[in-house]
Design brief:
- The chain is α+β, with helices and mostly antiparallel strands.
- The protein has a domain of 318 residues: Outer membrane efflux proteins (OEP) (Up-down Bundle).
- It has 11 helices and 10 strands.
- The strands form 3 sheets. Strands 2, 3, 6, 7, 8 and 9 form a 6-stranded antiparallel beta sheet that branches. It has a two-stranded parallel sheet with strand order 1-4.
- The chain starts with a helix and ends in an 11-residue tail after the last strand.
């Protein structure tokens, strides 16, 4: 009898032996902070990641970082992507739970009768409860989990586009701050030169003191703008580092290639209407929203299936004072007397409708994003032409002034004023260029597609590759 009792106990112990074991993984804020602060762009794992993603342009030790390479670095480091990847892993793990079949339950109740004169004063009862799901419930759970997993994977691609968009804008701000600082430095030097000329003329009695004071007011304003540009350059370095997911010290000594921002993007030839139609159907967040809706439908199907009770088969064995009794067991059914699962069905019906409304709202938001970005990009066309014409006129005027200076008909003061006017015109054109590039970055992010455009006339200044200190 004792041997027979040991057998189910040994079986239970063997099943417990295959269970997973808990492994503690404590979080240490100090260690985490040190790891984040140690991130650099010359990390060997990062270089391997970049080489794996870009087979055509392998660079074991890149000295110049383009927008595309920095985008790959952001894919490697940025916490937003790490979070959506972890959420996708969680969704995949939930699929294991959804596919599990319910385990049977084994009940053992040995009883010893102390005052029984029989040779075997034992009563041993065992009952096995086997749950049997009906109406395809397990299949609906699997479908719901699969759709949620698809949604989580698609949101990785969507998060990657958002990270790229923020990085592009941050890099554009860095380019704009650098070029603006250089032009302001040039403007400040010219205004100093003009101020010296005016002071000389005042000393000679040719002009009044008020003329000198008016010029010095402009010089003071330029000096103030110059300090603001220097602060802006320091700020954009922090924004750029955050957009990549690295500490700002990791940008020290890094050469940045700004050539992608030096030309005005002519979007008149870009088929934005076709790209918009494609975005409304195939943007990653659109597909993720469709997957969420499909998951809501599967959840509703599951609750409808829950109207039908599952079965509990209960075979058993009893050893009663020397007698062996076997029972096929009763089948336990949940009786739908008080409800037919109406509450959960109504809840899932409402959630499906909510998912449909969310999808429509997403498409409407996409339309607004694309229309605003496209309109802003096209509106800059006229301003770019006007700014370019102003720069050309100022250059032509400067050439004429220099010719007259060589002919002895003008002094250096007039040439310095012409140079200053050209510098101011170039700053105005830089503002228009940056504005159009911002609209392009927003439009590309809204479409979730790279935009190929015909470049217009490049900036007269060459693309500099390093953020100035």
């Amino acid at each position: 009898m004792l041997t027979r009792m040991r057998q189910p106990l040994l079986l239970a112990l063997l099943m417990l032996g295959g269970c997973a074991q808990y492994q503690e993984r404590p979080l240490n804020p100090g260690d985490s902070a040190a790891m984040l602060e140690a991130r650099t762009l010359d990390n060997a794992a990062l270089r391997h990641f970049i080489d794996s993603a870009d087979h055509q342009h392998k660079d074991p030790a890149p000295t110049t970082w383009t927008l595309d390479k920095l985008t790959l670095a952001a894919m490697f480091y940025h916490p937003d992507l790490a979070l959506v990847r972890a959420q996708a892993d969680t969704a995949d793990a939930a699929g294991i739970t959804a596919a599990q079949r319910p385990n049977p339950n084994l009940t053992l109740t040995p009883t010893w009768i102390s005052n029984l004169a029989a040779a075997t004063p034992w009563i041993f009862v065992s009952a096995l409860s086997i749950p049997i799901e009906t109406a395809g419930k397990r299949g609906f759970r699997i479908d719901q989990s699969r759709h949620l997993s698809d949604s989580a994977m698609l949101r990785i691609a969507d998060a990657a586009w958002l990270v790229r968009g923020r990085l592009r804008l941050a890099m554009l701000d860095a380019y704009a701050a650098q070029e603006s600082l250089l032009l302001l430095q040039q403007q400040y030097r010219l205004e100093q030169e003009i101020d010296q000329h005016l002071q000389q003329q005042q000393a000679a009695g040719e002009i009044a003191e008020t003329d000198v004071l008016a010029a010095q007011l402009g010089l003071d304003q330029t000096r103030l703008a110059l300090t603001g540009a220097q602060k802006k350059l320091a700020d954009v370095r922090n924004l750029l580092a955050a957009a990549i997911g690295i500490p700002v010290v990791a940008l020290a000594g890094i050469n940045l290639d700004f050539s992608v921002f030096t030309q005005w993007p002519d979007l008149n030839t870009v088929p934005v209407d076709q790209l918009q139609t494609l975005a409304l159907r195939e943007r990653p967040d659109v597909l993720a929203s469709l997957a969420d809706y499909a998951a809501a439908q599967s959840a509703l199907q599951l609750e409808i299936a829950n109207q039908y009770p599952s079965i509990q088969a209960n075979p058993g064995y009893t050893f009663d004072v020397g007698e062996h009794r076997w029972s096929l067991g009763a089948t336990a059914l949940q009786l739908p007397v008080f409800n037919q699962n109406q509450g959960p069905i109504a809840e899932m019906t409402a959630k499906r409708q909510e998912a449909a409304v969310r999808f429509e709202a997403l498409q409407l938001r996409i339309l607004g994003e694309i229309d605003r970005a496209h309109a802003s990009a096209l509106a800059s066309s006229t301003r770019w032409q006007a700014a370019g014409l102003a720069v050309q006129n100022r250059k032509a005027n400067l050439r004429s002034m220099r010719d007259l200076l060589q002919a002895g008909e003008l002094d250096a003061h007039a040439v310095a004023i012409a140079e200053l006017e050209q510098s101011v015109a170039e700053r105005a054109r830089l503002d228009v260029l940056v504005e159009s590039q911002q609209a392009l970055a927003i439009l590309e992010t809204a479409l979730r597609q790279p935009i190929t455009y015909a470049p217009a006339t490049a900036m007269s200044a060459p693309a500099r590759r390093k953020i100035l200190p």
